[in-house]
Design a protein that fits this description.
Elements (H helix, E strand, L loop, with lengths): L6 H13 L3 H6 L1 E8 L10 E3 L1 H10 L5 E13 L5 E12 L5 E13 L2 E8 L12
Length: 136
């Protein structure tokens, strides 16, 4: 991502790479000292990942094969008085591969993006709301 990319351009690129399941490209969107926080992550999920390489390592080990994600449907994007901070309401849409069960998982995500890189990604989604995801 270019250092001149706007926060919304970074978020669109994030959507593209996640739908393509390109977890290396996902990790590359973060600053070297970027952070992911998952306050409601639950069992098997770390509450915090620090640094691009820790994010890359965790992203590589998460088994997404149990889920077939077809869309990250953005419901709303909220800009704040801080131009680096964006709040996104979205629903992950797809199905559980083993059962064909439809999947719709709503969440709220808070981002701090500076110079085309994600500094902070705080994900408010509970791991229990993602059926079939194996994190162990």
């Amino acid at each position: 991502m270019s250092e001149t990319a706007t926060p919304l351009e970074v978020l669109e690129r994030r959507r593209e790479v996640l739908l393509a399941r390109d977890m290396d490209a996902f990790a590359d969107l973060f600053a070297a000292d970027g952070v992911i926080e998952m306050p409601f992550g639950g069992p098997g999920l770390p509450a915090r990942l620090e640094g691009r390489e820790e994010i890359r390592a965790f992203s590589a080990k998460v088994d997404l094969s149990a889920l077939e994600i077809s869309d990250l449907r953005v419901r709303d994007v909220h800009r704040t008085t801080d131009p680096e901070v964006v709040i996104v309401e979205l629903t992950t849409v797809g199905r559980v591969a083993a059962t064909g069960e439809p999947l719709e998982v709503p969440c709220i995500q808070v981002f701090r993006i500076r110079d085309g890189r994600i500094l902070l990604f705080r994900d408010y989604v509970g791991a229990g709301s993602v059926p079939g995801l194996d994190l162990d």
